[in-house]
From TrEMBL:
Keyword Transmembrane carried by entry: no
Keyword annotations: Cytoplasm, Exosome
Cellular compartment(s): Cytoplasm
PANTHER family: EXOSOME COMPLEX COMPONENT RRP42, EXOSOME COMPLEX EXONUCLEASE RIBOSOMAL RNA PROCESSING PROTEIN
Family matches, as NCBIfam families: PRK04282.1-1
Gene3D superfamilies: GHMP Kinase, N-terminal domain (3.30.230.70)
Record's GO cellular component terms: cytoplasmic exosome (RNase complex)
Alphabetized GO MF terms: mRNA 3'-UTR AU-rich region binding
InterPro entries, alphabetized: ExoRNase_PH_dom1, ExoRNase_PH_dom2, ExoRNase_PH_dom2_sf, Exosome_comp_Rrp42_subfam, PNPase/RNase_PH_dom_sf, Ribosomal_Su5_D2-typ_SF, Rrp42_archaea
Residues covered by the Exoribonuclease phosphorolytic domain: 32-167, 190-251
Protein name, per record: Uncharacterized protein
Length: 271
C-alpha cells in the first residue's frame, strides 16, 4: 500500500517499458504469483494464528475470542471484527496513530470475503441468545509491505480461523457462563481467497509488488469461495475498467484463485 510513496518518473517509465515488452521487473509472467508460504499456530497466546509470506510481503494474523453481548439485530449470532495495523516497521511510508484509510480498507475487504462466503456459521458462536456470544477479533499485523497485502491478508485470516480453537462453556443457574479449559475447533464451512489485479496502462497484472502498485492506475480485488462463486469485489484507485476488461480479469482471477487455495489447503493439511 504505502500511498505516501511517490515513485520517480524514471522508475515508472522503466516499469511501463518492461510491460510493453511483456516483462515484469522481477521477470514474472503477468499472472504469476510470487512464492507463497503459510505457517499456522504461530502465536501461542492466540486462539488461532498464521504468518503469511508472499514474496517479500509478510504479515501475521491472530484470532482472539471473548464472550460478549450480540448485536440487537442478530441476537443469536456471534460477531467477527477485523482490524489491521500498518506500522512504520512494515514500511517507512506508514505512520503511527489511528488506523489509516488503507488499514481500514484492508480489514474491511478481508472481512467481507469471510462474511459473504459464510465461511463461519455465526449462529454456532451463540452461547445464550440475546445475552452471550463469542466475539472473534481477527487482527492483521503487517511486518513488511512489499505489495499485495489484500491477498496475503485473506490467506492469513482463513488459515488462522481454520486452526483456531475456542474454549467450551458451561451454562449454570441464572444463565451464568463458565469458561472451561477444554477447547474445540471453529467449524469452517468455506475457504475464500482473494485475488487482486492491478491495471498499469493497458496491462493487467496479478500479485503486484510494491513499485508496481505505485505505478498502477486501478486495482480490483475479487473474493472467491471453493465453488468458484464470487463472494466479494472491491475496486480501488482512480483508474477505470471497461466491461470487457472486467470480464477478462475475472476469468484470469479465477485461475489464480485456484493456485492460492492450493497453497492454503496445503498449509492447513499440516495443522
Amino acid at each position: 500500500m504505502g500511498d505516501n510513496y511517490v515513485i520517480s518518473e524514471i522508475e515508472k517509465d522503466h516499469i511501463l517499458f518492461q510491460l510493453e515488452q511483456n516483462k515484469r521487473s522481477d521477470n514474472r509472467e503477468f499472472n504469476q504469483l510470487r512464492e507463497v508460504s503459510i505457517e499456522t499456530n504461530y502465536v501461542g497466546k492466540a486462539e488461532g494464528s498464521a504468518v503469511v509470506t508472499l514474496g517479500d510481503t509478510k504479515l501475521i494474523v491472530g484470532v482472539k475470542a471473548i464472550l460478549g453481548k450480540p448485536f440487537p439485530d442478530t441476537p443469536d449470532s456471534g460477531v467477527i471484527t477485523t482490524s489491521a495495523e500498518l506500522s512504520p516497521l512494515a514500511s517507512p511510508f506508514f505512520e503511527g496513530g489511528p488506523p489509516s484509510v488503507a488499514a481500514i480498507e484492508l480489514a474491511r475487504v478481508t472481512d467481507r470475503a469471510i462474511r459473504e462466503s459464510h465461511s463461519l456459521d455465526l449462529s454456532k458462536l451463540c452461547v445464550i441468545p440475546e445475552k452471550s456470544v463469542w466475539i472473534l477479533f481477527i487482527d492483521f499485523y503487517i511486518l513488511n509491505d512489499a505489495g499485495n497485502l489484500f491477498d496475503a491478508a485473506a490467506l492469513g485470516a482463513i488459515a488462522a480461523l481454520a486452526t483456531a480453537e475456542i474454549p467450551k462453556v458451561k451454562i449454570g443457574e441464572d444463565d451464568e457462563v463458565e469458561i472451561l479449559e477444554e477447547k474445540e475447533p471453529l467449524i469452517i464451512n468455506h475457504y475464500p481467497v482473494s485475488v487482486t489485479s492491478y491495471k498499469l496502462g493497458k496491462h493487467k497484472i496479478f500479485d503486484a509488488n510494491f513499485k508496481e502498485e505505485r505505478v498502477s492506475d486501478a486495482r480490483i480485488t475479487f473474493g472467491f469461495d471453493e465453488d468458484d462463486h464470487i463472494v466479494s469485489v472491491q475496486k480501488g484507485k482512480l483508474g477505470v475498467y471497461t466491461p470487457l476488461e472486467i470480464k477478462e480479469i475475472l476469468k484470469e482471477s479465477l485461475l489464480v484463485s485456484k493456485t492460492l487455495r492450493k497453497e492454503l489447503m496445503k498449509a492447513l493439511s499440516k495443522k
